[in-house]
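Ticket #4471: structure export looks truncated?
Reporter: QA, pipeline team
Priority: medium

Steps to reproduce: submit the single chain below to the structure queue and open the exported record.
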Amino acid sequence: MLVRISVLLLVGVSLLINGCVLSRGRVGNPIQEESLSQIEKGSSKKELVVTLLGAPDRMVVGNDKDIFHYYYYDGKSPGLILLVFNILSVNVRSDNLYVFFDKQGIVQDVIYGKRTPEVDFTLRPWGK
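Actual output as written to the record:
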């Protein structure tokens, strides 16, 4: 009788402490793609880039170039919490924009990569 009550109590408690977890985090601001089309290599200046995109998230000063780095990170994390076995998956993607300037402050190159639409809530404990 005591064993039966103990087993029922253990099963009941384990059902109460199980659960699912969904979390989401974002860092930075989404990069406005319509503003990128207004930036012209060889003629746009730093002032225009800052007006269109805001202050850069990071600035790098090289030998003869200045680089503005804009980024946006999007992450999702689903999880399954069980009494003995837990599964947690983290999926983070980023958009990165690099704008290269010469010493006169003229845009020399623009490199943009967008990967945040690929972020999903898929729970894959053993890979894809």
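Status: closed, not a bug. The export was complete when the record was re-opened. Leaving a note from the reviewer for reference: Strands lie at 19-28, 58-61, 66-81, 86-88, 91-101, 107-113.
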